[in-house]
Amino acid sequence: MAIYRVVFWSGTAFLSGILLASINRPLIAGIAIFSASTAIIYFLFRRNFLFGFLALGIIAGVFYYRAFERIQMNSVLIPFGTESEIRGLVIERELRPSSQRAVVELTDPWRGKIQITARRYSELNYGDIITAQGAIDPLVPERADYFLKNGIFGTMDFPDIAVSESGKGNAVKSALLNIKDKIVATFNKALPADKAALLSGITLGYRSDFSKELTEQMRLSGTTHLTALSGYNIMVIILAVTAVTGRYFSKNLSFLITAAAVVLFVIMAGAEASIVRAAIMGVIAAVGERLQRLRSADAAVMVTATAMVLFNPRLLVFDLGFQLSFLALLGIIYLKPALQNFFKSNQPGIWSWRENAFTTAAAQLAVAPLILGTFGTFSLTALFANVLVLEVIPITMALGFIIGGAGFLSQFLAGVAGLPASIFLGYALWVIGVFARFTLPITVAAMPIAFVFLYYALLAGFIRKYAKAAL
């Protein structure tokens, strides 16, 4: 068997074991015993090494998840439920209209991370050493998996907080976050509120300044992902940038320009772990597009996903961003060529509109059940909104980088660069507004699992039939 097939099926088996351990724990022991027995029989008696190898991969995934879970829980020492004073380092912070949330790494005598919700009258910053007085609540079962995949073990709501020291975090990360804050401030000075907010979302994934009206318009139009720091967002943007640069430069130079844009994006957004993961998934999608061969791409996809899950097994089932990234990546690599073959269209079209249309359609068809099951709604007109907006995303991002860089030299220069950016942002906001008013949503109260299996089975059949040229 070819090496890429071994890599692909090994990763698939291992992730299947992680999946089983994550979603149906009472069956773990039975599945492990059955898999072990099957592996022994096929290895020793029937010499079917492939089946036995896959069974061992499933066992490895199951036990790896359980070991990770045990080690993670044993590393924590937190005084739950009692009024106490704790001390810790702020390692993440999110501003909200009337509050702020901070992830705090506790210091001796306690161990572990907690999430603190506090008022905004005194803003916390990355690297602050704080003292908080209050009670730490254990995680509620309904939200436990969401917090645990981020390594958070408890919550604290509106305690009394005092900042004792500042600047104690990682120096590089502090510098990157300061750059990000400076760029956001530059956008706000150079552009009107909604345009500045949209540009901050597109280039930095920063959405704290979004108005309620803009947030609702993006939700209704199906364009929210453009400002979310997920591989779904970054993949679509990468391929849009590649489509534009590919018209003027060679494939190799176009790929290098796109990779440089991704690195710049990661730096500007603060190089958070979730951003780096999303960027890696996006780059893998670009590599898959460049290779234009599914057999070369699927092994790369599986290696990437397996490596991320090895680092944090909870991502596979409990991280929506990872799921959107992974499914969109599969859609772009596998479903996009099938759609192009079905419609007999392999030309990019004027301003690459066909390329953007197939990319967006493939990504959205791949993630549709997940979006519908998670949010309860999916817009049938989102494809058209995304195709129209994506036409201006590459140049808007480029102008955003220029405005951000100019802001470190002169606010006047940033304002000048903001003039053309304002035109493209105005167009994007207009498209978002139109498709927010004229939308065709599908709404469900709950997503039947049988429908999900049927949906992806039909997609797999479609790919098998029409993507043969890429296999």
User: Strand pairing plus helix content: what structural class?
Assistant: alpha+beta
Domain module count = 3
Largest sheet: 7 strands, mixed
Q: What is the helical fraction, as a range of percent?
A: 55-70%
Account of the 3D structure:
Residues 27-142 form the DUF4131 domain. It is a multi-pass membrane protein. Residues 202-461 form the ComEC/Rec2-related protein domain. InterPro entries: ComEC_N, Competence_DNA_uptake, DUF4131. The structure is a single chain. The protein has 471 residues and is an alpha+beta fold. The protein folds into three domains: 3-74; 83-169, OB fold (Dihydrolipoamide Acetyltransferase, E2P), CATH 2.40.50; 179-470, no CATH class. The chain has helices at 3-23, 28-46, 49-74, 141-148, 171-190, 193-204, 212-221, 231-245, 251-268, 273-291, 294-311, 315-318, 320-342, 353-375, 382-390, 393-407, 411-437, 449-466, and strands at residues 83-95, 99-106, 113-119, 129-135, 137-138, 152-157, 160-165, 377-379, 441-443. Strands 5-6-3-2-1-4-7 form a seven-stranded mixed β-sheet. The relative contact order is 0.10.
